[in-house]
Amino acid sequence: MTIIALDRLVPDTKSCCEHLEAEGYCIIRNAVPSSLVDRLAGDLEQDFVATPHSVGPFYGETTRRFHGLLRRSRHMGRFALDPLVVAVVERFLQPWCDTIQLNLTQAIEIEPGGIAQPPHRDQDMWPVHTAGVEYMINVMWPFSSYRAENGATLIWPGSHRRQDEIVLPAEDAIAAEMEPGDALIFLGSTLHAGGANNSASSRRGMIISYSLGWLKPYELPWLAYPPEIARSLPRSLMTLAGYQAHRPNLGTYEGRCPSLLLGEMGDGAKGAIDVLRPEQEQLIADYRAGRILPDLPGPPAEDG
Which residue among 48, 52, 82, 146 is buried most deeply as judged by most CB within 10 Å? Predict the structure, then answer.
């Protein structure tokens, strides 16, 4: 099957969303300059070298993975807040939540000899699903060439519409071949896997995923970016990374929006403050004004 590719020289949110709707994934060519990818990869080089191999049958013991990328390179903001990516994420997730959050930032290296990952859907980390609702969007950014022989991400096109099938025929998968500067976007409901690396070189890249703001994220943001670190990073990134409440009153600190931890007052401010949606505030007002009454059973009907 032909890999879907979009030229970033003509950014088109609508076309990208249509491809995602139809196939469950799309590849955007030249999403960012390859020179920017090189600078980011350079910032992470020592982390790749210092990170031990992963442990477990899912991660794969010939891979290296590390997280918290927003604090490791000043170039991460350009990727996490890419305008086209954010527009696509909002299109799929915004109908189901009040705010969108970063679910994960993870750098990945698959070494030579690494076997293919088991096929999976990332949304399955959450045990309850509602038909028609997307819970997350993934974006894979390659640091090196992604080829079928070196472990390019395997995608099963259309698998987002086949949720009852745990696995699909291997021959139905495509290898998402890309160059640094390209981006692979795929739905959390799309079946995929890291490929086997049968080459002599490592395959490096990173994944940034976004999820509904009321879900527990894969990576706990307040541990990845504690306040003393978060205050040194762009506020727009830290808002996306979880320093914002999700109405009504989810993800608060001391009963207030955690964004207070980013200000000069730090964690000294006290006193709970509601974070509600307008319709919730109106519902409370209507109840207190007596406009909402319980449905009481009427008198029994008389015989005859």
Answer: 146
